[in-house]
Sequence to fold (368 residues):
Amino acid sequence: MLLCLLSLSGCQNQATNSPTSSPSNPTTESTETNLPQASPTTNLIAEYETDVALPTAVPETPNSTPVADPLRFTLPTPGPLPVSAWRPPLYPVPWSLNRNDHFYLTRPIAADDVNWPLPEYRYAATNFGPDLPHTGVDIVTPIGTNVMATGPGDVIWTGFGLFTGGTDPDDPYGLAIAIRHDFGYRGKSLFTIYAHLSRVDVVRGQHVETGDLIALSGDTGLVTAPHLHFEVRLGENIFYDSVNPELWMAPPQGWGVLVGSLTTTWGEHVELQRVRIRSLENDMTWYVYSYGSMGTINSDPYYGENIVMSDLPAGTYEVQIPYLGRAYRFGVIVYPGAITYFNFQGFNGFNTILPFEEPPSALPAVVP
Fold:
């Protein structure tokens, strides 16, 4: 069981999702033909990228393959991505444009510092092997950065031993804090975890409010570089009740979240699939991977997702997914302060059929 916590050590020396980062590996191409036709909403292209560039926002040369003119909607024109660590202010919490979303939490690091997840160590990453899932997100930050409560609640743990118990100084989480929040979700309690700290400024039993200073970041526990490990747990305060924090933290104002379910034609989850997300406004490109180890990783109770990309400026995007030798692509609109959902089902292509009883809103998601 302790092996699972090896995934907490993931953090590199710099935040590689900076807009100024560039892929380090060349792109190669292959061509496939005579495969079954996808659904009408999906365009197939012959070129299919096999490079392994880090999931980061970088300028790219426009795709040489013609792309159909998307249906245009009146949306704010997003400006260039910031070159500094600053992000726009967050939406006030709780924030929810429909009854199925739950942006209840703020960020544990302030907006004038790097406060978004490190791409290589998002939720469900398996950098240390397929059986060692990452149960939170890592935020690169220097030792001594202020760590704040992401919502009101009671401090139920401080110190070493969050995973192993007692006061074990070799606990993988290092110096850590756990908060049980004043609110839950669908009858279940909600907890947040803050790990690898250098100093704790609260005590067990103390009640904290959103934005209260609770600790300083550090490099204690099983780490390779200073960072904050942040988890959200739904149900019990245990390792195996974690959920993706990117679906619980309010996005920056004017930005949204892309959520998807990637399966084979026969409905099996596609694990660790690299997906390209390209802005149709400014040609900026992001890479993100679908969840690994779905047997031990929890999806959202409503969305049932296995891929999440938060902090996307509102606008139109092209999503490209390689599947069995060809690249499928389609257009989506990311709305400010909202979740855009899609479903990819192998040769059946893409759809936006929501995985719950009634659509939460009439906002269109796919660009024809």
Q: What stands out?
A: The radius of gyration is 20 Å.
